[in-house]
Write a structure and sequence with these properties.
By secondary structure, this protein is an all-beta fold. It has one domain: Methylamine Dehydrogenase, Chain H. The protein is about 0% helix and about 40% strand. It has 1 helix and 27 strands. The strands form 7 sheets. The protein has a 4-stranded antiparallel β-sheet, with no helix packed on it. A 4-stranded antiparallel β-sheet has the order 7-8-9-10. A 4-stranded antiparallel β-sheet has the order 11-12-13-14, with no helix packed on it. Strand 21 and strand 22 form a beta hairpin. The longest helix has 4 residues. This is Glycosyl hydrolase.
Length: about 350
């Protein structure tokens, strides 16, 4: 059995799971009780895994914690790890993303925040530096706010080039940098914003999540406010690929870590209800880069189901075979040990699940 660590961030704390006996899972937690954990990073590039958690206390405010003993103990820096510099006239509201960079940049971790900004760490997440280039972009003052607030919620490094980076902003759209964050350009050609008078603007799309193909590194998958998209040229252009799905709205998209063309989404009905289509808990998987999608729901609840999966709550691990995990706003966590073919519930009655991360640590 693969030694997998599963991190589940919820509205009231972090829960950590490990495979147990007879196919079950053992969870510890809540870590950071009464704090909303919107972001978790599992950094396996060093000699031992480092866990990073972006926790948000309604009393003390947001902070980034780290653990080098799999959650046995946590360290919070004496000074805030992520802090807006003087002159920006703003302060940190939330850390939405903690993303380790590629293997050629040990120690580099990115943090995406609300308000919409990017920070970069070179010491494994202990301290972060403000990426001034994105904040100073002339379009930033015109970015809107998604329902959850204005945030850099997705960071997509390019493993081929440490200076190439992509971010997604709610609701500003996709931006790319080729010079390590010094300069940025909007990259939204083909992405629809059906809530704007000009439905194909240069920027202003409400992008929900972006994931990179593990083999064809110029191929990316994107879940938009309306529509699932693919880019085959590194994000320069996007094309819709969601015609076989029961709804084009959703928050999450995840990819297989080794197989090209394999991606997963959890559709959500657009409009006033925002529930899973047909009130059924269903994951859809493509094995041909979005040309077709097939439902994968064996083991999911048969009864009516209303749990929505948020943008960071559908993830894969790097095991063999690959595990797929989702958490929903009902406080349930489902896992597939066979790349999405079948599912089982491994946790329930948790607080509202905000994010999920999983990695092999043994």
């Amino acid at each position: 059995m693969n030694d997998v660590l599963l991190a589940v961030g919820t509205r009231k704390g972090l829960f950590l799971g490990r495979p147990g006996g007879q196919g079950g899972w053992d969870f510890t937690g809540p870590h950071f009780p009464m704090q909303a954990v919107y972001s978790v990073g599992i950094d396996t590039r060093g000699d031992r895994p480092r866990l990073l958690a972006g926790a948000d206390s309604s009393h003390w405010g947001p902070s980034v914690f780290r653990s080098d003993d799999l959650g046995g103990s946590w360290h919070e820096p004496a000074k805030p790890a992520v802090k807006f510099p003087e002159g920006t006239d703003t302060s940190l509201e939330r850390v939405w993303q903690l993303q380790p960079a590629g293997p050629d940049e040990p120690g580099v971790v990115y943090a995406g925040t609300q308000p919409g900004a990017l920070f970069r760490s070179e010491d494994g997440g202990e301290t972060f530096a403000f990426v001034r280039g994105l904040w100073d972009h002339p379009q930033r003052p015109e970015w809107g706010e998604g329902f959850g607030g204005q945030a850099v919620h997705t960071v997509v490094p390019d493993p081929r080039d440490p200076r190439a980076l992509m971010v997604a902003v709610s609701s500003g759209g996709v931006y790319r940098s080729a010079d390590g964050g010094e300069s940025w350009a909007p990259s939204n050609s083909g992405l629809k914003a059906d809530f704007l008078p000009d439905q194909y603007p240069e920027f202003g799309q409400c992008v929900h999540k972006v994931a990179r193909d593990p083999v064809d590194l110029d191929r990316l998958y994107l879940q938009n406010h309306g529509g699932v998209y693919r880019s085959d040229d590194g994000g320069a252009h996007w094309a819709e690929i969601g015609k076989d799905l029961p709804a084009d709205f959703g928050f999450a998209v995840a990819v297989h870590p080794r197989r090209s063309g394999v991606a997963y989404v959890f559709p959500v009905s657009d409009g006033s209800d925002r529930y899973p289509p047909g009130y059924r808990c269903r994951v859809f998987r493509t094995e041909d880069a979005g040309a077709t999608w097939e439902e994968r729901s064996a083991g999911m609840p048969d009864e009516l189901h209303y749990g929505v999966v948020l943008r960071d709550a559908l993830r894969t691990d790097d095991a063999d075979p690959v595990g797929v995990y989702l958490g929903n706003r009902n406080g349930e966590v489902y896992a597939s040990a066979d790349e999405g073919e079948s599912w089982r519930q491994i946790a329930r009655h948790l607080p509202d699940v905000l994010c999920v991360r999983a990695a092999v640590i043994g």
